[in-house]
Amino acid sequence: MKADQMKTIRNPFSFKMVKQRVESEIELISLYKPAAIVIGTTLSLFISARACDVKLVYIKPFAYTRTHLLNGNLKLPGFLSSLSRLIPEKKLLSVYRKMILNMRYIPRSFSKVGAIYDVQFPKYTIDMIDADYNLITNIPELTGVSRLPETDRYVGPIFAKLNTEIPPVLTRSNRNKPLIYFAMGSSGGKKMVSNILHILGSLDVIVICPMKKLLGDSVRDYQNYPHVHISDLLPAHEVSKIVDLSIIHGGEGTVQTACLSGKPFIGIGLQAEQEANIDDCVAFGNAVKLNKNKVNKRHIEQAIHSLLNNKSYQESAAAMEHLLRGKNGAKQSAEFLITKFGG
C-alpha cells in the first residue's frame, strides 16, 4: 500500500513471493486450461500467463496506458507540482512524460522469475503491464482520446454496487444543511481520514462516512460532532445520488460512481493513477482537486462552497451523468470475452 501511494520506492514484491505466486498460478492454469485469463492489476500473471502461452485480458484504468501518457490529459502528480515554482510547468510536464515513457525499470524479483520460465519483458516499464487485450474502463468523452491501439478498447465504467442498507439520516426530508459523502477507500490512511473528519465536523454540513472499520475505536472521537455519521460500507452508487457532493480519493471505480450520481465531487488523489482520474473530471468541470499534502480547513471549505454555489459544476456533473448513463463496462467486457474466446 505504501508503494501504491508513492510513500516508498521499495519494491514490495520479493523474489520468494513472486516465485511462489507464479508457481501456484501455473499449477492452476495447467489444471483448468483456460482459453484466456482476466485480471485487474495482478502483476504475477504477466509472467504466468505468458509462460503457459495463454491470452491475458486486463481490465485496465486508462491512466495505466502508454496512450494516456502520449495523448491523454496528463498533469503533474502532486509530488512534482511544487517544483513548478522553480521550473516552468510545461517544461516540467514534458520531462515527466519522457521519464515515464522511457523508464526501463523492471523489478528484479520479476525479471529473475521471468527468466526461470523464459518470459521476456518489454523494454519499457509502462509496457510491462500491457496484456494481449486491454479493456479500458472509461469513455473517450472523458479521456479526450478517441483512437486506441488495436489491442485496446473502451468498455465503460466498472464499479461496485453493494446491496446494503441506506442509513436513515440520508433519507430524512427535513435536513437544512448540505449533505456530504466522505470516503477514501482502502488506500486512505486512518490519520488522513481522521483529520478530514475533524475539519468537516467543524463545518455547517452533514457528513456520512462509511469508514467505521478503518477508524476502529477512534469512532468515539466524533461523538461530539452530531452531524458526522460513521457507518460500515454503504451502497455508494445509491448514496452518492442522495448527497449534495462527495469527497473521495481518485480510484477509478470511486470516481465513476460519483460521476454517475450527477453530483460534483472533491477529489484527493493518493497516487498518480488516482490523480489522473480526478484530473480528467477537473478538465470536464464536475470536480475540484485538492493536494493530499495541503488539505486543510480553508481548502476544504472553499471547495465545498464552490461546488455548492457555482452552477457550472452542477451543470457539468449533470452532463457527465448523461454521458455515462446506460454504459455498462462489466457487460461490455463479458460480451468481448464471449465473442473472442467463447467458441
Q: Layout of helices and strands, plus pairs?
A:
Layout: H1 15-32, E1 36-39, H2 45-51, E2 55-60, H3 66-71, H4 78-81, H5 89-102, H6 108-116, H7 125-128, E3 133-136, H8 140-143, E4 152-154, E5 179-183, H9 190-201, E6 206-209, H10 212-215, E7 228-230, H11 236-242, E8 245-248, H12 252-260, E9 265-267, H13 272-284, E10 287-289, H14 297-309, H15 311-324, H16 329-341
Parallel strand pairs: 1-2, 2-3, 3-4, 5-6, 5-8, 6-7, 8-9, 9-10
CATH class of the largest domain: Alpha Beta
Order of helices and strands: HEHEHHHHHEHEEHEHEHEHEHEHHH
Tell me the strand order in the biggest sheet. 7-6-5-8-9-10
Shape: globular
Global Rg: 21 Å
Which CATH-level-2 architecture of the largest domain? Answer: 3-Layer(aba) Sandwich
**Mind telling me the CATH superfamily name of the largest domain?**
Glycogen Phosphorylase B
Number of strands: 10
What's the story with the biggest beta sheet? 6 strands, parallel
Look at the helices and sheets and give the structural class: alpha/beta
Which fold name corresponds to the CATH topology of the largest domain? Rossmann fold
* Total count of domains: 2
Question: How much helical structure, as a percent, in the residues?
Answer: 40-55%
Query: What's the rounded overall pLDDT mean?
Result: 91
Query: Helix tally?
Result: 16
* Low-confidence region ranges: none
β-strand amount? 5-15%
Q: Between the first and last Cα atoms, what is the distance in angstroms? A: 39 Å
